[in-house]
Write a structure and sequence with these properties.
This protein has 65 residues and is mostly helical. Helices cover 88% and strands 0% of the residues. It has one domain. It contains two helices and no strands. The protein is elongated.
Length: 65
């Protein structure tokens, strides 16, 4: 697995953990804003990787057709 995939997997796993903590009300109110800010950064990492992967797949599909 290359470094970008690891970064995506790590970011996604960390994001899932934050969501679970929020659903279970496990985040102290004093840390909530910080966790949400971090979650937004993780979402940006995941979104960028997904956009990049989609572009690569489309480019490959264009060469097949």
């Amino acid at each position: 697995m290359n470094n970008q995939e690891t970064n995506y997997a790590k970011a996604f796993a960390e994001l899932q953990e934050i969501v679970q903590q929020m659903e279970n009300a496990d985040i102290p109110i004093d840390e909530l804003a910080e966790k949400i800010k971090h979650a937004s950064q993780l979402i940006a990492v995941c979104k960028a990787k997904l956009v990049q992967t989609e572009a690569e797949v489309n480019k490959i599909m264009d060469t097949i057709e």
